[in-house]
Amino acid sequence: MATKRKGKKDDTVDRAARNATKESPSSATEEETEKAIVEPEKEGEGLLGAVMVVGGGVSGIQASLDLVNLGYKVYLVDSGPSIGGVMGMLDKTFPTNECSMCILSPKMVEVASNDNIEVITLAEVEGIEGEKGDFTVTLKVKPRYVDVNKCTGCGDCTAKCPVKVPDPYNAGLSFTRNIRVPFPQAVPGAAFIDPLTCRYFTKGKCQNCVKVCQAKAIDFDQKEHSREVKVGAVILAAGFSPFDPRLKPEYGYGVYPNVITSLEFERILGANGPTSGHLVRPSDGKEVQKLAFIQCVGSRDTTVKRDYCSSVCCMYATKQSLIAKEHLPTVQPTIFYIDIRAYGKDFERYYQNAAKRQGVRYIRGLVSGIRERQRSKNLLLRYLDEKGCMQEEEFDMVVLSIGLEPPRGIKPELGISLDSFGFIQSEPFESFQTIREGVMVCGAGQEPRDIPDSVTQASAAAGKASQLLHSKRYSLLTHAEYPPEKDVSGEPPRVGVIICRCGSNIGGFVNVPEVVEYAKTLPDVVFAEERIYACSQDAQEWIRQIVRERNLNRLVVASCTPRTHQPLFQETLRTAGINKYLFEMANIREHCSWVHMQEPEEGTRKARYLVKMAVEKARLLQPLAEGESEVVPKALVLGGGIAGMNAALALANSGFPVFLVEKEEELGGTARNIRISQHGEDVKIYLSDLIDKVEREPLITVFKSSKLVELGGFVGKFQSLIRDADGRETLLEHGVVIVATGGKIHQTDEYLYGNDPRVLTQWELEDALSNGELPERNIERVVMIQCVGSRDDEHPWCSKVCCTEAVKNAIKLKESFPATDVYILYRDIRTYGFREELYQRAREMGITFVRFEDGHKPQVRRVGEKLQVLVDDAALMGERIAINTDLLVLSVGIMPNEDNRELAPMLKVPLNADGFFLEAHMKLRPVDFSTDGIFVCGLAHAPKSIDESINQAVAAAARAETILSKEKIITEGIVARVAEELCSGCRACVQLCPFEAISFDQDRKVAVVNRSLCKGCGTCTAVCTAGANVIQGFRFDQIIKQIEAAGKAWSG
Amino acid sequence: MNKEGTAEKKDEREEIKILAFLCNWCSYAGADLAGVSRLQYPAKVLDVRVMCTGTVSPYFIIKAFQEGIDGVLVAGCHIGDCHYLKGNYMTAKRMRFLKEALNVFGIEKERLRLEWVSAAEGEKFASVIRDFTEQIKALGPSPLRKDREEVAKV
Amino acid sequence: MSDILQKLKEIADGKVDAFLLVVQEDGVSLPQLIPIDEMDQIDHKELSDLRYPLVKIVEEIQERFPNARIGLLVRGCEYRALIELSKYSQINLDKLVLVGRACERNTVEKCACLYPYPYGLENVVGEENPGIEADPKLVEIEGLDVSEKLRYWASQFEKCIKCYGCRNICPLCYCKECSLENPGLVVPGEVPPTLPAFHFLRALDMAGRCVECGLCEEVCPAGIPLRSLYRALNKIMEDQFGYKPGHNLDERSPFIFLGETSDVEHLI
Ligand code: SF4
Ligand code: SF4
Ligand code: FES
Question: Do residue C175 and residue A983 have CB atoms under 8 angstroms apart?
Answer without folding.
Answer: no
